[in-house]
Design brief:
Blueprint lengths: L2 H13 L5 E5 L2 E6 L2 E10 L8 E12 L5 H13 L4 E5 L4 E9 L6 H26 L2 E2 H14 L9
């Protein structure tokens, strides 16, 4: 078994019994906690030709989508990055997204308790800051984005009788 598969096995064993946990795809998992959705991905890492000898486990939460990109927002995120004990905020221009994430080494030495603590802490930070960012810079929390898409999917883009 390679390090990516070993890492995935640890994730599935540590989180698999939680009702908030879902395996989305090979090497990709999601855990819902509060108003945040934490994505866990496992990727091979290391020098070329030896990428399968190491694995990186990325634990990321989308905090806000559609935020207004302003210098004051970026300044506040950089200040927070310097104050938080782990992880970092990031801005993704495609979709005007604010993300929060932390990476850890995978493989046979990955500690399940550390993984659970990382998922929990990433979710807590995302859940704490999503409302603050939306109130000041606009956009929508991840939970709101998903609920809106679900409602749109369930009810479709219904047209009135006049439009038909």
């Amino acid at each position: 078994m390679n390090v990516v598969e070993t890492s995935c096995g640890t994730i599935e064993k540590a989180l698999g019994k939680s009702p908030a946990y879902r395996k989305v795809d090979e090497h990709l998992y999601v855990v819902k906690q509060g108003s945040s959705y934490v994505m866990i991905s496992v990727v091979p890492s290391g020098p070329k030709g030896k990428a399968n000898e190491r694995a990186l486990v990325r634990v990321v939460a989308q905090v806000v989508a559609g935020v207004t990109p302003e210098p004051s927002l970026f300044r506040q995120l950089l200040i927070l990055n310097g104050q938080l004990r782990f992880g970092a905020f990031a801005y993704i221009p495609d979709g005007n997204l604010i993300m929060f994430g932390h990476s850890m080494l995978g493989g046979g030495t990955m500690d399940a308790r550390e993984l659970i603590a990382t998922v929990h802490d990433v979710a807590l930070v995302a859940d704490e800051y999503d409302d603050r960012i939306v109130a000041r810079y606009g956009g929508a929390r991840m939970q709101d984005v998903i609920e809106e898409k679900a409602m749109s999917h369930l009810f479709g883009d219904q047209k009135s009788e006049e439009d038909l």
